[in-house]
C-alpha cells in the first residue's frame, strides 16, 4: 500500500513533443505529490508538486494533473527540449510531520533534437 | 542559494569495513534524511532525523546502519560492516519544517563495496 507505481520506464520524444509520465498510488493517506528531476551524477531536485485540493498545477512548461478519485497523477512537459532529458521520479508522502517520501521507480526521458 | 553538500563524492571500501558518509544540511533546516539509490533503481528512504533522534526508519535501515549529528552542522551515516549489496548512491536531504516543506537533496556519495 506504500507503493507508488510509475510508467513508462523510459520515453523518447522529439523536441517540441509533450511527454506524459503517469503515477498511481494506493495509500489514501498520501497528501503531497512531488515530481523530482534527476540528471546523471546529480541528486534528485524538486521540479513541481501538487496537493490533492487542486486537480492541476502548472509551472512554466511543466504541468501536474491530479485525479483524486482514481488515485493517479501525471506530469506533462510542454514544448519539450533536449535539456529536459533526465530521469523523472514521482513521489508521495503523508502529513506525518516527517516528510518521508515514497518514490516511483523513475522514467528516463530522452528528448531528441 | 544554500545547498546540501556531501562528502566524499565517491567512496570505495572492502566488504566488512566501516564507512562514514558525511552531509552538511542547509543551515536553518530541522529535518534530515538519508536515501539510497541502487544503480538503475528507485530512490529508497532509509531514515529521517529530527531533534537529535531518529524519527522514522525503513526496513533497510537495520542494525548495521546508524546516524549521528555530531555537531551543529554535520549529519553522518555510518555503515558498520559493509556488504556488497550496500553499493549504491547515498543521498542526504534536509527540509526546513513539517511534511509540507520541500526536501532538498545533496549530490550524493557513490559507495562501492568490493
List key phrases describing it.
heterodimer, A: 113 residues, mainly beta, five-stranded antiparallel β-sheet, globular, B: 114 residues, seven-stranded mixed β-sheet, 0% helix
What's the short story on this structure?
The complex is a heterodimer of chains A (113) and B (114). Chain A has strands spanning 4-7, 10-14, 20-25, 30-38, 45-50, 56-59, 62-67, 72-77, 86-94, 102-103, 107-112.
Description:
The complex is a heterodimer of chains A (113) and B (114). With 113 residues, chain A is mostly beta strands. Chain A is 0% helix and 56% strand. Chain A is built from no helices and 11 strands. In chain A, a hairpin with a 4-residue loop joins strand 7 and strand 8 (72-77). With 114 residues, chain B is mainly β. Chain B contains no helices and 11 strands. In chain B, the strands form 2 sheets. In chain B, strands 2, 4, 5, 6, 9, 10 and 11 form a 7-stranded mixed sheet that branches. In chain B, strands 1-3-8-7 form a 4-stranded antiparallel sheet, with no helix packed on it. The radius of gyration of chain B is 13 Å and the shape is globular. The relative contact order of chain B is 0.34. The A-B interface holds A 32, 34, 36, 41-46, 49, 51, 89, 93-106 and B 4, 31, 33, 35, 41-45, 48, 50, 55-56, 91, 93, 95, 98-108.
Amino acid at each position: 500500500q506504500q507503493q507508488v507505481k510509475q510508467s513508462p520506464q523510459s520515453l523518447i520524444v522529439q523536441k517540441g513533443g509533450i511527454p506524459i509520465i503517469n503515477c498511481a498510488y494506493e495509500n489514501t493517506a498520501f497528501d503531497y505529490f512531488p515530481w523530482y528531476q534527476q540528471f546523471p551524477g546529480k541528486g534528485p531536485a524538486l521540479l513541481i508538486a501538487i496537493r490533492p485540493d487542486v486537480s492541476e498545477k502548472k509551472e512554466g512548461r511543466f504541468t501536474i494533473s491530479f485525479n483524486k478519485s482514481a488515485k493517479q497523477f501525471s506530469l506533462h512537459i510542454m514544448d519539450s527540449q533536449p535539456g529536459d532529458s533526465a530521469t523523472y521520479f514521482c513521489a508521495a508522502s503523508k502529513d506525518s510531520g516527517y516528510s518521508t517520501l515514497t518514490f516511483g521507480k523513475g522514467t528516463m526521458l530522452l528528448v531528441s533534437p | 542559494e544554500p545547498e546540501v553538500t556531501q562528502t566524499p563524492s565517491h567512496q570505495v571500501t572492502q566488504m566488512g569495513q566501516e564507512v562514514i558518509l558525511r552531509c552538511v544540511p542547509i543551515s536553518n533546516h530541522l529535518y534530515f534524511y538519508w536515501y539510497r539509490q541502487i544503480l538503475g533503481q528507485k530512490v529508497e528512504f532509509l531514515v529521517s532525523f529530527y531533534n537529535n533522534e531518529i524519527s522514522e526508519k525503513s526496513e533497510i535501515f537495520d542494525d548495521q546502519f546508524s546516524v549521528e549529528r555530531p555537531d551543529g552542522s554535520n549529519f553522518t551515516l555510518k555503515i558498520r560492516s559493509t556488504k556488497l549489496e550496500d553499493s549504491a548512491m547515498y543521498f542526504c536531504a534536509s527540509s526546513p519544517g513539517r511534511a509540507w516543506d520541500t526536501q532538498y537533496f545533496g549530490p550524493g556519495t557513490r559507495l562501492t563495496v568490493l
